[in-house]
Every structure is written in structure tokens, then in C-alpha cells.
Amino acid sequence: MSALMLQLAGPLQAWGSAARFARRTTENAPTKSGVIGLLAAAQGRDRTQDLSDLTALDFGVRIDQPGTRVRDYQTAHHLDTDRSMPVSERFYLADAVFVAAVAGDDALIDRLHEAVRAPVYLPYLGRRSCPPARPVDLGLRSGTGVHEALESEEWRASTWYQRRLRREAAVSLPLLVDAVAGDTRADSRRDTPLSFDPLHRRYALRGVRTHTVEVANPWARGPAAPEHDPTSLLGGD
Amino acid sequence: MHLTRFRLNTARSGARRLLSSPRTMHAAVMNAFPDVLPTDTDTPRVLWRVDRNAKAEVFLYIVSPAKPDLTHVVEQAGWKERPNWQTYDYGPFLERLAEGHTWAFRLTANPVHSIRRKDGEPTKVTAHVTPRHQAQWLLQRQEAAGFRVLEKPEDQRLLPEGDEHELLVHDRRSNAFDKPEHQPAATANGKRKNRVSLVTATFDGRLEVVDPEALRRTLTRGLGRAKAYGCGLMTLAPAE
Q1: Minimum Cα–Cα distance from B91: chain A residue
Q2: Does residue A209 lie in a domain region?
Q3: CATH 3.30.70.1200 for the B2-94 domain, yes or no
Q4: Nearest chain A alpha carbon to B168
Q5: Closest to A16 (Cα-Cα) out of A31, A6, A5
Q6: Could you tell me if B162 lies within 8 Å of chain A, comparing CB atoms?
Q7: pLDDT tens digits in sequence order for chain B, 240 residues long
Q8: Which of A102, A197, B46, B78 is at a distance of 20 to 30 A from A87, taking alpha carbons?
Q9: Which CATH number covers residue A188?
Q10: Which of A44, A31, A43, A41 is nearest to A192 (CA)?
Q11: Cα A231 from Cα A227, distance rounded (Å)
Q12: Domain for residue A234, yes or no?
């Protein structure tokens, strides 16, 4: 078992799980379907190709920098015919940073790592118009599952964000991982891709368990100066 | 020797004027000694330091051979009704210093070194600006100054190297001001003549006395440069 670590950072990201028709919403964290789609695209798979080996991977994501939600009221026109497209409302996460991990069989993870380093179709952050701002590949962590790999990963938030939290020596980050069987306190989300076939996309439910992990803040302010009273040793006048 | 502590009333504009300029503060401190004339050259050193513990908790410490009279500072930057300063006899404490004792210390200093940028150029006094170099500056001088900064236990060190000692560098400042006797005049290259640039750092830590005689000298004569401008005064407090 090894884990492939991915860094998802960009000016805009959009991770829809219940987005339909003209209202394209985003979740607070990358979805499994979004990341599996990114990996399948990197491998050059067709939309209609089988995904069962990828959906069987363990998936987890850590919110290193939550970002802010922005709304775009889009009145696009067709490039050639100038016919207006349906007015749509699109939501994005601006300035967010995530670390995602997929874990599973070593051979498959190795092939995915190769694919991410030399992708057939370029990776994007949930929506075609959202390119990554940093390298997506963070390397392999051998012998660990998703949870441990994300727990020991350093904090990837932007420098300005880390400095803003410099009063805190350690920061706790939300961690969303696949629920294991028998987990009673899991949320469910319909973001396990069964098929990306444009004629009939299908998604299955997935149990998600939320944890928090503590990471060190490299910009934490040093210790405060101790009290110092040299007169405490001396007698009166 | 005497150690004096003066609490500045930071609500008064006079206090702000004194705190904003080491030159003004130096004049105020020197004027507290009626027997020392400005033209005296062989008088023993007067050292002073400003401790900014909190916005309204600012102390001026003075170590001097004679008792100071700070009435004029009270008028500018003190309280009207209450006595603002206490002078303690420093001698008995200095006599008690013995080898092997440990103390907490505080020192505000002007850490500098002499460098040349290229071969053949005369060396130039240049300030250390990073906490690491400033700490190194103090550690290089500890032996001659009669003390040894205690080392941290292995498990409390936060860095693989550079964090071996019980030493904290904080309140780093840089200040620049003109010397009083000359009007600030711009030279051809835009630099002002008689300009004093001062980089200071405050060190807090724990030390062990190695050579009591040398440490007494450090505590009364000061450590490093810029002693007129509030640098070089080291004080000791009980190490908890």
C-alpha cells in the first residue's frame, strides 16, 4: 500500500458534487470524482472507459487553506454564432489550497504517479477554466494509508496565509477521508464516479469521515520575552 | 555603584520625545549627574537601557558610580505627586557574585562586526541584522565578559543547529538620527553627514558566572558599542 499525494492550489477551483443544469455549485473541498477524473485524464483514459480500479482507491483530502467562495453570474455567448448560452451561476473557491491523497495497490499508484508527472490531458482543478498554480505532484508515500500520509504532510498554505496565523504555533486542519465499513458518524456524498460517459454520467454515494489534524506553522512567532526585574535582588536606598 | 530604575509615564509627550531618540535620552541621563561636566573625559561610565515590557510599562535603567538626580526627567516624563525612581546600592550585589552561580540576564546591545566587501577595501563597521548573527555575536564575547550562556537540554531545542543556548533575541530595532553639533547637510551622494545608524537587539537568557571579576566589569562598564545610546547595559535577575 502506498499513497500518491497531490497538491491542489490555484486562484480558482470548483468542486461540484450536486451541481446540475445552470447552477454550478462547489463543495468546500475537492470531491473524489474530481480527483479521480484528474487522474484518469492524466492517464489519457476516454470518457467511456472503465474506472472501477480508480474508484476502488482510498481517497482523502486536507483543507490547508479554505479560500473564499466567489459567485460568477455568467452570460456567455457562443463564439461563432453569438447565440446566448443559458444564463448560469457558477461558484468557485478563490485562493484555496488542498492536499489530496489516493492510496491503494503499489503498481497502480506508481502508474498514476507517472501519469501525473507526464499527463496526457492537462490537469485542472474541478473545472476546465481553473488551472493549477503549483505543481500537482507531491510524490509518493510508501507503506502508508491516506490518513497517515495526510497527517504527516507539511502545511502547504500560502505564505501570506501562514503568516497571518503566526500567533498559532500549530494549526488544526480539517481532513476528509473515505469512511470505513461500520463508521456510524460518516456523512454521505454522491461523488464516487461510476462513469464519466457524457451521455450518461453516474455517481454513487460515498461515506466521508471528518477529522482534524494538527500541523506546525513554520511562521509561528517565537517565545515572548520573559519578565526581568533586576531590582528584586537589591535592597532599598 | 548604583542601579536606578525610572518608570516613564508614556502618556506624556515628553516621554515619547525621550523614547523616540536615543540622543535625547542620553542627554537627559547625563544631565542627571550634577558632578559630571560634559567636558570631563575620564569619568567612569554611565550606562542606561530602556525596557519596553508593555505599552504603559516602560522602565529606564541606569547603572552609574554616583546617584542620579532625575528631577528634570520627572518634569518631562514622570508623575507629579509620586517619586518615580528608586536608586539601589549595586555594590553589595556585585560583591556577592561568585563562580558557578546562575542568573537570568537581559542585555540590549549593538551587535556589529568589521567587514570589507572586496579585497583591498578598508574594513567597515557593519551591524549584524539577523537574530542568529546577533546571538552569535554575544556568544563570541561571553568568555571575555566573564559568563557562559547556559545550554538547552537536547529535547527543548527547536532547530537542528543555532538553538543550543538558553538565549532569546527580541525587540530588534534599527534607528538613525543626526548628531546634534552639526546641522544635517546632504552630501553629493545623498548621504547625510554625521548620521548615526544604530541596530540594536535585546538578549534575554540564562548565564553561569565563570569569572566574577570580568562579569563585574561587564555589568558596570558595559558590553559592545554605542553605550551612549542605550546599549551595553546588562542586568541580572534571579533565575527561576
Answers
A1: A234
A2: yes
A3: yes
A4: A225
A5: A31
A6: no
A7: 899 999 999 999 999 999 998 989 999 999 999 887 777 777 778 999 999 888 888 999 999 998 999 999 999 899 888 777 889 999 999 999 999 999 999 999 999 999 998 888 899 889 999 989 999 999 999 999 999 999 988 887 877 777 888 898 988 888 888 776 655 555 656 666 677 889 999 999 999 999 999 999 999 999 998 898 999 999 999 887
A8: A197
A9: 3.30.70.2660
A10: A31
A11: 12
A12: no
**Secondary structure class of A40 (helix, strand, coil):** helix
B2-94 and B98-238: identical CATH topology: yes
Q: Where are the domains of chain B?
A: 2-94, 98-238
Report chain A residues whose CB lies below 8 A from the CB of B203.
Answer: none
Distance between CA atoms of B64 and B231, rounded to whole angstroms?
Answer: 14
CATH superfamily to which B98-238 belongs = Crispr-associated protein; domain 2 (3.30.70.1210)
Chain A closest-CA separation from residue B11 CA (Å): 22
**B-chain residues within 8 Å CB-CB of A223?**
168
Least CB–CB distance from B106: residue in A228, A232, A233: A228
Rounded to two decimals, what is the model's pTM?
0.58
Buried b or exposed e, range A34-58, using 16+ CB within 10 angstroms: bbbbbbbbbbebeeeeebeebbebb
